[in-house]
Design brief:
With about 170 residues, this protein is mostly helical. The protein contains seven helices and two strands, in the order H-E-E-H-H-H-H-H-H. A two-stranded antiparallel sheet has the order 1-2.
């Protein structure tokens, strides 16, 4: 196969994948009406469990309550973003919500809901270490939003030994 043919095939495949991902994201958005849809909540829940491993409560009921509150704070944080930023995040989440996008961008085979903590951590690490800027940016967005929303609640500070801001 000639080099030119191989390049054309690669570009054509990328265009088809992008169009399919965009089409699916439009049909089942992960961010809708100012809040995370079920697919977006599943992504951020899995990411939170992986990123905050060791910082979340260990008891199941407390952990579920903490994650539910975390997802609520994420909704609030994303809602104040400019419309363009919300649209970009919606595209990212929409792509990660479908199998081709999740596998292609994150390298995660199982659905977010079914993936183990280790599998999500491995997927996030591979995004972080990727040579593709898009994968690195996706990782940074997921990680930064997760940390910002979780640690914006002062009740979470005690779990990591942070006494809070110094009074001036």
């Amino acid at each position: 196969m000639q080099r030119r043919t191989l390049l054309k095939l690669g570009i054509g495949s990328a265009v088809v994948l992008a169009a399919a991902g965009a089409g699916v994201a439009l049909l089942a958005p992960a961010w809708h009406d100012g809040r995370l849809a079920d697919s977006g909540r599943a992504i951020f829940r899995a990411v939170a469990v992986a990123v905050l491993d060791g910082m979340l409560p260990t008891a199941t009921a407390e952990r579920d309550t903490a994650l539910l509150a975390h997802l609520g704070r994420l909704d609030g944080a994303i809602a104040v973003f400019p419309a363009a930023t919300q649209a970009e995040l919606a595209q990212l989440l929409g792509l990660l919500a479908v199998a081709p996008g999740r596998i292609g961008l994150a390298g995660l085979q199982p659905r977010w809901e079914d993936a183990s903590v280790g599998a999500v951590q491995h997927a996030l690490q591979s995004m972080r270490d990727s040579s593709l800027a898009l994968r690195q940016q996706a990782y940074q967005a997921l990680r930064d939003l997760t940390n910002a929303a979780y640690f914006s609640d002062p009740t979470t500070w005690q779990r990591i030994g942070y006494p809070g801001p110094v009074a001036l």
